[in-house]
């Protein structure tokens, strides 16, 4: 048997195997990245509407360019590959209660703080502050979602603390800076701070009234908290909003990590949660040993006080999940544009094209719907219609977007085949992270029940929302709104129908939001397949009358 020489595939004359047999790699997509995540997302740009004027657009595109670099994207990999580590005691045996992070995590935190993603809720005087911040948050979430948890909590905590500026002025001034400082130091030595939260306990879960942690008033205007929290998010934050019981009932407290004299507060971390995903973000279990807490809000009304955090937190859940959908499908489209199979690019294979187009509709709808909610939140203080939209649609939108993310992310992973399933690529990480926002700040049933509560407390909100849907969708929207009205009556009578109502509200709201910002053909494809189509369990069911390739190319222009 003749041995082939390099450059002599016939094998004539003997020799060694050709170099390409062992060294050449071809028909693999180049690494994802190296383009502007903002400039290549027409739905995101359109969804920000008038908020994105020429001045803001330049800043936004710069942020998108940075987020799209392979170097920044790689920080997301490193921050998750090197998990945080809990150090309960130092080498001398003293309690340390410290969590060590990889430098990539701190780099991501620093960039997000410098971009102001942690404090926009305190910048109400700036027009469209929430919408502009949401655009950057959406881009940042495509890089890495774990570090976004403390960013979200810090932003939401500002909504609570700003109600008492006289009491928490020092904290608010540090929250508004763009300085990230990971050191454990007293407040007066920090240029900037982050804030976490601790609500749920082993026995209570979602039922916050079942907490057992207690707070005893001291003689210095503070309280001493004893008890535990089962999920204590981002334990290296500088302070935490915590629920504990007084004689008046569940009460909210701000619990610093470090006391003014430099001593660690009585927070004893037991372990870090071994989570499915979200690995870069440390979630912990903690015990309070007479930890010092500052009263926030009215004693006995801690749950009502904490509710100030709910809207901004849930909005970020929806934004983050929509961004994960975009991140996963962008990688699938990128792979399919470069991979060749059966003599043609994968993206040109009709069945694959239709699957990608079908997924792209949900990503576009999730983006449009999330930003409709953000714009309403930006105007709710001065516009009652937007306030009504926020009341009813916040749990609705969180429900649908966050629950849609895991199946879409899986389908996108499948587009990459085996490459999508191995850790060398980042699809596996995105897939593991996909379920968390559907669980955080209220799972699906909690969201459906909150929709029903909104209907009961503010029945006029449904009329306002349906009026918007009808106006946006025209005669075709009226039938959908009639169905929603009937579903609302059924759900109020029988809460078991809550999910049916919530999903119908979300889908119709998504169609109305899309109608304002995308070409008619894309909106028609969503309406036909989601509002008027048959029951769907997987992607790829789009009617052939829609131009799938044109749809993909418009929603995912090449970088």
Overall tally of structural domains: 2
Shape: globular
CATH architecture of the largest domain: Up-down Bundle
Query: Would you list the SSEs in sequence order as H and E?
Result: HHHEEHHHHEEEEEEEHHEEHHHHHHHHHH
CATH-defined fold name of the largest domain: Butyryl-CoA Dehydrogenase, subunit A, domain 3
Strand content: 5-15%
Structural class: alpha+beta
Work out the radius of gyration. 25 Å
Assign the CATH superfamily of the largest domain.
Butyryl-CoA Dehydrogenase, subunit A, domain 3
Task: Please give the order of strands in the largest beta sheet.
Answer: 3-5-9-7-6
CATH class of the largest domain: Mainly Alpha
State the low-pLDDT regions, or none: 1-13
Helix content: 40-55%
Count of distinct strands: 11
List the helices and strands and how they pair.
Layout: H1 42-47, H2 54-67, H3 70-81, E1 85-89, E2 95-100, H4 103-114, H5 129-143, H6 148-161, H7 165-175, E3 195-198, E4 214-217, E5 223-233, E6 239-246, E7 249-256, E8 267-272, E9 283-296, H8 302-306, H9 310-338, E10 340-341, E11 344-345, H10 350-379, H11 384-415, H12 427-433, H13 436-439, H14 444-457, H15 459-473, H16 475-493, H17 498-515, H18 520-531, H19 548-555
Parallel strand pairs: 3-6
Antiparallel strand pairs: 1-2, 3-5, 4-5, 5-9, 6-7, 7-9, 8-9, 10-11
């Amino acid at each position: 048997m003749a041995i082939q020489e390099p450059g002599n595939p016939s094998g004539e004359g003997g020799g060694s195997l050709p170099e390409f047999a062992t060294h050449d790699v071809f028909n693999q997509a180049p690494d994802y990245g190296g383009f502007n995540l903002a400039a290549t997302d027409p739905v995101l740009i359109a969804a920000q509407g008038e908020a994105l004027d020429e001045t803001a657009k330049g800043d936004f595109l710069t942020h998108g360019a940075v987020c799209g670099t392979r170097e920044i994207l790689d920080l997301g990999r490193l921050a998750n590959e090197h998990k945080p580590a809990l150090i309960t005691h130092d080498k001398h045996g003293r309690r340390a209660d410290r969590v060590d992070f990889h430098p990539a995590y701190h780099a991501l935190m620093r960039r997000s703080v410098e971009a102001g993603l942690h404090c926009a809720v305190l910048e109400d005087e700036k027009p469209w502050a929430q919408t502009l911040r949401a655009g950057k948050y959406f881009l940042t979430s495509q890089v890495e979602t774990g570090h976004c948890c403390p960013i979200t909590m810090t932003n939401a905590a500002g909504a609570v603390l700003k109600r008492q500026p006289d009491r928490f002025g020092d904290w608010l001034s540090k929250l508004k800076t763009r300085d990230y400082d990971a050191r454990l130091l007293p407040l007066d030595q920090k240029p900037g701070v982050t804030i976490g939260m601790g609500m749920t306990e082993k026995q209570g879960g979602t039922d916050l009234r079942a907490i057992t942690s207690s707070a005893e008033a001291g003689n210095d205007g503070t309280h001493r908290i004893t008890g535990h929290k089962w999920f204590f998010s981002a334990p290296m934050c500088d302070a935490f909003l915590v629920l504990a019981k007084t004689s008046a009932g569940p009460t909210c407290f701000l619990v610093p990590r470090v006391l003014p004299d430099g001593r660690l507060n009585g927070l004893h971390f037991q372990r870090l949660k071994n989570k499915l995903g979200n690995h870069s973000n440390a979630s912990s279990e903690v015990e309070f040993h007479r930890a010092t807490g500052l009263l926030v809000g009215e004693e006995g009304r801690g749950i009502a006080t904490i509710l100030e955090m709910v809207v901004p937190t849930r909005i970020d859940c929806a934004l983050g999940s929509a961004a994960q959908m975009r991140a996963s499908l962008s990688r699938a489209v990128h792979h399919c544009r470069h991979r060749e199979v059966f003599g043609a690019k994968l993206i040109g294979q009709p069945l694959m094209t239709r699957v990608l187009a079908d997924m792209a509709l949900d990503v576009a709808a999730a983006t449009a719907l999330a930003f409709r909610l953000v714009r309403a939140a930006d105007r709710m203080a001065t516009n009652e219609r937007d306030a009504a939209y926020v009341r009813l649609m916040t749990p609705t939108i969180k429900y649908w977007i966050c629950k849609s993310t895991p199946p879409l992310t899986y389908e996108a992973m499948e587009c990459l085949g085996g490459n999508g399933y191995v850790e060398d690529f980042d699809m596996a990480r995105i897939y593991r992270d996909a379920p968390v926002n559907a669980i955080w700040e209220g799972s699906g049933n909690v969201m459906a029940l909150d929709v029903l509560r909104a209907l009961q407390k503010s029945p006029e909100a449904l009329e306002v929302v349906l009026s918007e849907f009808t106006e946006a969708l025209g005669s075709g929207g009226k039938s959908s709104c009639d169905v929603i009205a009937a579903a609302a009556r059924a759900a109020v009578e029988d809460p078991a129908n809550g999910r049916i109502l919530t999903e119908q509200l979300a889908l119709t709201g998504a169609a109305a939001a899309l109608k304002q910002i995308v070409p008619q053909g894309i909106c028609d494809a969503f309406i036909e397949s989601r509002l008027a189509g048959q029951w769907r369990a997987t992607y790829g069911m789009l009617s052939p009358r829609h131009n799938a390739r044109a749809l993909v190319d418009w929603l995912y222009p090449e970088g």
